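Data deposition worksheet. Section B asks for the primary sequence of the deposited chain exactly as it was used as input, without tags or linkers unless they were present during the calculation. Section C holds the resulting structure in token form. Section D is free text for depositor observations; keep each observation to a single sentence. Incomplete worksheets are returned to the depositor.
Section A, Depositor: J.P.
Section B:
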Amino acid sequence: MRRSRSTAHRVGTLVALGAVTAVLALAAGLLVSVAPADAAPKPTWDGVYSLKRFAASKTGTSLAARQREPDFSDNYTFTTECVRSRCFATVVGGPKPANPTLPQPPRYTWQNGSWVHRYSWQWDCWQGVGVPKVWRPARSVATYKPQSDGSLKGVWRTTIYGGPCRGTVVMNVAAYPVS
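Section C:
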């Protein structure tokens, strides 16, 4: 009888060791199969891009959204920096804005598959030739989503708080690589 207890004890120990080994192997497999966040490819927005604003087809509730103006574009140089799990694309070259209240340099944050630039500034409401501009606080969000052809497409949304241009302006935007 002693012999069978000893054999049963050995079998039980082997089964327990086998279960522990299986659990450890499974855990190790999970650790290997789940790549760390740093191993994922980092998004980049580097080089010279022509940023086009489709002002001719803008929409919104503001007087500014109904004012006629042509589409316009300028070339800007971007550079990307990733710190830990956050990536930023910063404009490091290009024309200075006519509006001195725009934050400089523009900096875009990688969020949910798009480059996003959120900023507060003063909207300079134009009301016609000879009429002084009215400056009012505004908040903008510009979003650019990378496309398979190397361009980026998105929307620029602004809310103007007060004055004759109070309301929203929404404009499609795009960025095209410059060769």
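Section D:
The radius of gyration is 28 Å.
Residues 2-33 form the longest helix (32 residues).
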